[in-house]
Please model this.
Amino acid sequence: MLVVMETAAPKEAVDNVCRLIEQMGLTAHPMPGAQRTAIGVTGNKSQVDADRILTQPGVREIIHVTKPYKLVSREFYPDNSVVDVGGVKVGGKEFIVMAGPCSVESREQTLVVADAVCKAGAKILRGGAYKPRTSPYSFQGLKEEGLKILAEAREKYGLKIVTEAIDTDTIEMVADYADIVQIGARNMQNYSLLRKAGRLSTPVLLKRGLSATVEELLMSAEYIMAEGNRDVILCERGVRTFADHTRNTLDLSAIPFVKKASHLPIISDPSHGTGRKDKVLPLSRASMAVGADGLLIEVHNDPANALSDGPQALTPDMFDEMMVELRAMAPVLGRTME
Amino acid sequence: MLVVMETAAPKEAVDNVCRLIEQMGLTAHPMPGAQRTAIGVTGNKSQVDADRILTQPGVREIIHVTKPYKLVSREFYPDNSVVDVGGVKVGGKEFIVMAGPCSVESREQTLVVADAVCKAGAKILRGGAYKPRTSPYSFQGLKEEGLKILAEAREKYGLKIVTEAIDTDTIEMVADYADIVQIGARNMQNYSLLRKAGRLSTPVLLKRGLSATVEELLMSAEYIMAEGNRDVILCERGVRTFADHTRNTLDLSAIPFVKKASHLPIISDPSHGTGRKDKVLPLSRASMAVGADGLLIEVHNDPANALSDGPQALTPDMFDEMMVELRAMAPVLGRTME
Amino acid sequence: MLVVMETAAPKEAVDNVCRLIEQMGLTAHPMPGAQRTAIGVTGNKSQVDADRILTQPGVREIIHVTKPYKLVSREFYPDNSVVDVGGVKVGGKEFIVMAGPCSVESREQTLVVADAVCKAGAKILRGGAYKPRTSPYSFQGLKEEGLKILAEAREKYGLKIVTEAIDTDTIEMVADYADIVQIGARNMQNYSLLRKAGRLSTPVLLKRGLSATVEELLMSAEYIMAEGNRDVILCERGVRTFADHTRNTLDLSAIPFVKKASHLPIISDPSHGTGRKDKVLPLSRASMAVGADGLLIEVHNDPANALSDGPQALTPDMFDEMMVELRAMAPVLGRTME
Amino acid sequence: MLVVMETAAPKEAVDNVCRLIEQMGLTAHPMPGAQRTAIGVTGNKSQVDADRILTQPGVREIIHVTKPYKLVSREFYPDNSVVDVGGVKVGGKEFIVMAGPCSVESREQTLVVADAVCKAGAKILRGGAYKPRTSPYSFQGLKEEGLKILAEAREKYGLKIVTEAIDTDTIEMVADYADIVQIGARNMQNYSLLRKAGRLSTPVLLKRGLSATVEELLMSAEYIMAEGNRDVILCERGVRTFADHTRNTLDLSAIPFVKKASHLPIISDPSHGTGRKDKVLPLSRASMAVGADGLLIEVHNDPANALSDGPQALTPDMFDEMMVELRAMAPVLGRTME
Model:
């Protein structure tokens, strides 16, 4: 249920309605917008006494939401949510590029790549310290040592950091270092992890699962928001289909769908979405053109010897070329890139 | 097998090699390129006496092609093929938009839509006279009457015409009227129809099947080219996956893949690819950005009452807006649009 | 629309209703059942004057069918349809095995295999004379020569013959030789071919397309039945999914679904459905257990040198073992096998 | 790498080889078989000094395993693994049925269902106390209270219990109550959870993920076994495809594939695999026929009012009918059912 307040409703009126909602055993989620405040109501399994709320001062109308997601819905919050990552704003006019190696393999590799992507114009450094790998015998990441290397790169190049948390035991430590905590595709429906991410004060990057519908992606974001963390960035990263010319099938239509259904920002990951470096540049352009708020790109200084996902990593030179092309496209599409 | 001639090889040398190939019981496909001529050899089930060819004057090298497709391969013909549709060039620098109703429903509807798409800048009018429908009880098209209406629209607005042929009995009649004969997704592996299309002198638009791999699409184009028709335009139109927010999943990564593997032009059909009109505009932009040579777009003056596929048809106003946006993007992407 | 007659309604009453339906510009399809006759009505695009029919003598009720398929629906014809193939009854109590080589490669190979499958208990010999192949350079079948070889095998071993027709130009010739004309997966939505199959007096085996829903399969059967041919046998042969341990994913749940929705018989093709000979035996058992009316099995005397689909062909010994196992299972599942 | 011992090799020889492997910094997994002992070696990222091992007394040969999975491989352990669940043996000759409600909703409901499935012949009671739900607002299970109810049912009816663990925080508590700890489809690649399951002494039921290949399923089992827990039971429960007549597509070919590639037992879950109660019975028969070691079936005394997954739950009567049919089939397929 969604309570829509009058345009002129004062803060006291909003607080009053929230108090009433809580008294009814429900949870109130006030969402201040540019025009008016809406108050999301969750916890109502059955019919709620909506009349009691409707008669409160400052209440304009009550919308009974039928979609399974509420807090992530654009009906709840009609403006675009802009997630502020220590000053870097994801979901606004600026097109944000996050780039870096798949895994943090060593201090030297990370700093070399960080330097390169920073110079090319990336704002956020990606890199995995905890790696979910199909095989128990594959490289599983440098763990906390990797997080420290990322922090050093942040210090040195003024980049923000996005890195993945893979379980409830370590997510808090990851959040201590990261500017954005990533929930990977394999964990998109790991609800315990989502709930814990919802209790962080760090923004969360939530990747679409390999066979998740867009509605399931939004429901997983709902898990995070329902715990109180509103800073959720979604990510389309390709789905599994019969098509075999790419590793996954990047489903770009998901981006305008999410933009219409939800207020949350969404970025695109053409590196995982295609799994082939020569497809990353064209799909990056297409991602910007379709309306994504940014990109997540794998860059490696020595892809042939990468410990994971080498075939999809751009070299710094290829990344540079990509940024040049995107910068030329941005103004035509109403976006900015520094 | 591919015979690559010297840069300076005269026409006589090429003719000589072709003659020899034919004497060996094989078929020669000379492909004159900007730099040199290559001669595709088909019909060789087993090992061919390559040495005899290699010793002919003007022959530089012989490449044993291991890919299952030959004539469609970029190894056979390194430049981009440009298909000339009565002066409208598909596959060149210009980005070509084909637009019109799903079905030709009446003379009036067709002329109204033709007028609108022509004014907005489309070069080719699409419209189905023969409709492959899932149900035998659905509207099956106006047949030859529909072709005549399309021809009248061509006359009146100076547009070229693309329309679908659905069987071997009627493809020749369709080709009598059409500037491009379309082979639809359901017929992508109707090999008898492909062979007959290969004997036409009209360009062919070949749509990817609903669950066809890109390699299978190229193999179907090979069927057409093997019969002698080199004017093949490919079309990505979405594949069937589990994703349910769009009718099909438009697989834009197929476009750069085809561009690398083949010399043939490829366009995108975001109308069928998404099945939802509000997704057509963003996916059209993305199609141009990813490298497509053009678009196939459904436009209807009254989508609510369309006899087929109304939910995915743009109104003339929406189409106009799309063309304005594409025209702004084109120069940044190295394309032209009049 | 379905007109249900009284149990005791005489033939004259049925004829009278059919005449009236035809006078209304519609088509009547009388379906005599064990209990009563139902008359399917097709051709009604809009509301029909049902009252006029309801008041005729012998009419019990009128059912407005909302499903997109009519003639194939179990609502139209509540009993199981049994397709009589020259005395071999498909869809009855007997579990019917059709077996033979993928392609008719030579007279000798065909007779050797026919002999083997006949001895093991197959009732119908399969073998392709016209082969739809992904590549134009692959073996395309022996064509009419192949049909003659099949006819000779029929003569010699008393088997019936099922063989594929791939286009409208040759389907009649195929029907001249075949006891069952097969429409392959790639042609499931080749509507011109379906219509022509509908005008044959030969039974038709219709295979599910690689990415066809079960409803689309039923709609394609509707095309055949709408033309007057009621002898349609459906076939589940695997669909295309991401799973890569088999060539296709045999969707056995389609079989009980079809059995409930339709009166038509349905068989299973585990050879194409798995593409791997060591999976054919277990999936054959599962097909019988799930309720299929029979099997279509590839058997080759020398799989390693088969001109097509060798990896999925059973040897005669493996086929024999399969038949022994099925024969043991049949009585438990209420089926018979000679 | 796999070290195969001589048939007659004494325990001392095995211990000696294990000691040597550990000295080399690797991990030894002795697998005593009926014929001989094999010793799996894991931890070897690069080439190992195999010669040193080969020269030890009692060693017959060394097999370099190229498949990505090792401990789960049938090459490591050629016999069928039989998982002993407190006397109920999964993977042996007996066909084991696990049945019960999707969720433990109340003490009364659970006891009623337990009574019914016990009488019908089920050996293991299923029931979710922790429920992974797509929506944060759906019923999430009774948690420990639910586990206590299951334990009471075990006491009362002599059934074993299988119930799901959804995170690393609660898996140990679940294991305190359960006879088998289930890892659900959504958590198949939750590697932290798999590792913790690998350190339990309780058998684990690992369900295939919605879009997991069979190889990925085996790799996830490898995570569990690599931690020391060898009692892993696999479960095919349907994959996500375009087919819409069932909720998922039950991929029965996975079962013979797993049986060949691995020594682990595998059961089938036609309740989730089809999502429709009227498909459960035919697919249960097919699962037995294809070679599954057992079934996981949802049964509810009042499906219309179930808090989760009502449409796929059998009534006790339907379950009873299913058991009667399976009991009739079992001897023909070489299985036993009490």
Q: What stands out?
A: DSSP finds eleven helices and 14 strands in chain A.
